[in-house]
Amino acid sequence: MQQRQDKIIEILNKKKKVEVNTLSAELGVSKVTIRKDLNSLEEQGLLKHTHGFAVLSDPQDLKVRMTVNYHQKIKIAKKAAELVSDGDTIMIESGSVCALLAKVIGESGKHVTIITISCFIADFVSSYPNIQTFLTGGKYQTESKVLVGSLAKELLKKFHVKYLFLGTDGFSIEDGFYNNNISRAEIGEVMAEQAENLIILTDSSKFNHENLIHQFDFDKVTEVITDADITKQAKNVIKKNKIKLKLV
How many CA atoms does the CB half-sphere of 74 hold within 13 Å? Predict the structure, then answer.
């Protein structure tokens, strides 16, 4: 069922709106089964099911973003989780791959403390008894469900961790890594100052363009974990700047 529902989301990511009859034919199951899947996915907030159609929910919603390139993202999250040991305290910023990392750690049974600015991530892993979460205070950003501003910065300065896991919104072969929001970019920089290693988790699509705010030069980044579709040019630049590169 999970594989079938993943396939439904994959189809919707491409077509945005699909008939129940079409899904039934493409997946080789009855319309009753498809309707049950759509009802389940609607309860998860991933789509809307109405009048014989399925429509993808708000593409900016983090739950929906997690479904885009899901198979690459979950592989990236699992590879990143290999760095985390039982008893560790880590920082996780925000974003879809970072949320999946927190989930993978929760499912692993490792006892880990997560420091995060993401209200979404804190709630996402709240059912795992092996995860202890510290959520910073600060100004709440509705669109990204994160906490930013001076209060968050001051609290983050009290911590020291081995690893910070962070996403990225863009990349330049000249300048490094980009963010699309200045407040989140500033918070990410403060988090990086408190971590021995900055690990960037992203699917390869983010290496195809720059974005609004320059965030990290190459010398600030320890490691990049991404999928094998990363461009050859980006791969060469990362290696040239002595950043570890893991491909899944």
Answer: 10
Q: Taking the CA of residue 23 as centre, how many other CA atoms within 13 Å lie in the half-sphere pointing to its CB?
A: 30
- CA separation for the pair 124, 203 (Å, rounded): 20
Residues 6+ apart with CB under 8 A from 82: none
Alpha carbon distance 236, 160 (integer Å): 31
Whose tokens are 């209200």? That residue is 119
- Its pTM stands at 0.84
Are the beta carbons of 107 and 128 closer than 8 angstroms? yes
Distance between CA atoms of 16 and 233, rounded to whole angstroms?
32
Distance CA 29, CA 38 (A): 13
**Banded model confidence at residue 46, pLDDT cuts 50, 70, 90:** confident
Structure tokens at 131: 């995860």
pLDDT tens digit sequence for 198-232: 999 999 999 999 898 999 999 999 999 999 999 99
Beta-bridge partners for 241: none
Furthest-apart CA atoms within the chain: distance in Å? 56
DSSP per-residue string spanning 89-133:
EEEE--SHHHHHHHHHHHHHT--EEEEESBHHHHHHTTT-TTEEE
Q: How far is CA 183 from CA 117, 161, 178, 210, in A?
A: 12, 22, 13, 17
